Amino acid sequence: MLLYNVTFIVEEASASEWLDWMQQVHIPKALATGAFTSNQLLRVVDSPNEGITFCSQYTAEHMGDYLTFKEFQEPALDEELNVRFKDRFVSFRSLMEYIA
Predict the structure, then answer these.
(1) Band of the pLDDT at 7, cuts 50, 70, 90?
(2) Distance between CA 62 and CA 37 in Å, rounded?
(3) N or C: which end of the chain has fewer CB atoms below 10 A?
(4) Band of the pLDDT at 79, cuts 50, 70, 90?
Protein backbone atom coordinates (compact mmCIF):
# COMPACT_ATOMS: atom_id res chain seq x y z
CA MET A 1 0.00 0.00 0.00
CA LEU A 2 1.23 3.50 -0.87
CA LEU A 3 0.85 6.96 0.59
CA TYR A 4 1.03 9.81 -1.89
CA ASN A 5 1.70 13.09 -0.07
CA VAL A 6 1.37 16.51 -1.68
CA THR A 7 2.65 19.34 0.51
CA PHE A 8 1.39 22.83 -0.26
CA ILE A 9 2.70 26.10 1.11
CA VAL A 10 -0.09 28.62 0.56
CA GLU A 11 0.13 32.36 1.05
CA GLU A 12 -1.76 33.30 4.18
CA ALA A 13 -4.20 35.64 2.43
CA SER A 14 -5.36 32.79 0.14
CA ALA A 15 -5.36 29.95 2.66
CA SER A 16 -9.07 29.97 3.48
CA GLU A 17 -10.13 30.08 -0.18
CA TRP A 18 -7.57 27.40 -1.06
CA LEU A 19 -8.72 25.14 1.76
CA ASP A 20 -12.40 25.43 0.78
CA TRP A 21 -11.58 24.72 -2.86
CA MET A 22 -9.44 21.71 -1.99
CA GLN A 23 -12.18 20.21 0.18
CA GLN A 24 -15.08 20.95 -2.17
CA VAL A 25 -13.46 20.46 -5.60
CA HIS A 26 -9.90 19.16 -5.87
CA ILE A 27 -9.90 16.27 -3.39
CA PRO A 28 -13.29 14.91 -4.52
CA LYS A 29 -12.06 14.96 -8.13
CA ALA A 30 -8.84 13.14 -7.18
CA LEU A 31 -10.80 10.49 -5.25
CA ALA A 32 -13.30 10.12 -8.11
CA THR A 33 -10.49 8.88 -10.38
CA GLY A 34 -10.57 5.59 -8.47
CA ALA A 35 -6.82 5.63 -7.94
CA PHE A 36 -7.06 6.22 -4.20
CA THR A 37 -8.98 4.60 -1.38
CA SER A 38 -8.79 7.52 1.07
CA ASN A 39 -7.55 11.05 1.70
CA GLN A 40 -6.45 13.08 4.68
CA LEU A 41 -5.91 16.82 4.64
CA LEU A 42 -3.61 18.16 7.34
CA ARG A 43 -2.16 21.50 8.38
CA VAL A 44 1.46 21.56 9.49
CA VAL A 45 1.51 23.19 12.92
CA ASP A 46 5.24 23.88 13.25
CA SER A 47 6.18 24.75 9.67
CA PRO A 48 9.26 26.96 9.32
CA ASN A 49 7.89 28.35 6.04
CA GLU A 50 6.11 31.62 5.39
CA GLY A 51 2.44 31.09 4.64
CA ILE A 52 0.42 28.09 5.76
CA THR A 53 1.58 24.56 5.03
CA PHE A 54 -0.91 21.81 4.25
CA CYS A 55 -0.44 18.15 3.34
CA SER A 56 -2.97 16.29 1.24
CA GLN A 57 -2.36 12.56 1.63
CA TYR A 58 -3.88 9.88 -0.57
CA THR A 59 -3.74 6.12 -0.04
CA ALA A 60 -3.37 3.83 -3.06
CA GLU A 61 -3.60 0.07 -2.90
CA HIS A 62 -1.38 -0.61 -5.92
CA MET A 63 1.48 1.09 -7.75
CA GLY A 64 -0.44 0.74 -11.01
CA ASP A 65 -3.31 2.85 -9.64
CA TYR A 66 -0.88 5.58 -8.64
CA LEU A 67 1.00 5.48 -11.95
CA THR A 68 -2.22 5.70 -13.95
CA PHE A 69 -3.29 8.70 -11.88
CA LYS A 70 0.09 10.42 -12.35
CA GLU A 71 0.01 9.97 -16.10
CA PHE A 72 -3.64 10.48 -16.99
CA GLN A 73 -5.52 12.36 -14.27
CA GLU A 74 -3.07 14.44 -12.26
CA PRO A 75 -1.97 16.80 -15.08
CA ALA A 76 -5.52 18.17 -15.52
CA LEU A 77 -6.01 18.52 -11.76
CA ASP A 78 -2.68 20.33 -11.44
CA GLU A 79 -3.56 22.67 -14.30
CA GLU A 80 -6.87 23.59 -12.67
CA LEU A 81 -5.12 24.26 -9.35
CA ASN A 82 -2.35 26.29 -10.98
CA VAL A 83 -4.80 28.46 -12.90
CA ARG A 84 -7.06 29.12 -9.92
CA PHE A 85 -4.24 29.87 -7.45
CA LYS A 86 -1.51 31.12 -9.77
CA ASP A 87 1.53 32.42 -7.87
CA ARG A 88 -0.18 31.91 -4.49
CA PHE A 89 1.29 28.53 -3.53
CA VAL A 90 4.15 26.13 -4.04
CA SER A 91 3.97 22.37 -3.73
CA PHE A 92 6.10 19.26 -3.66
CA ARG A 93 5.25 15.60 -3.73
CA SER A 94 6.50 12.38 -2.21
CA LEU A 95 5.45 8.77 -2.56
CA MET A 96 5.86 6.45 0.42
CA GLU A 97 5.31 2.78 0.95
CA TYR A 98 3.72 1.45 4.13
CA ILE A 99 6.10 -0.88 5.98
CA ALA A 100 4.05 -1.84 9.03
Answers:
(1) very high
(2) 10
(3) C
(4) very high
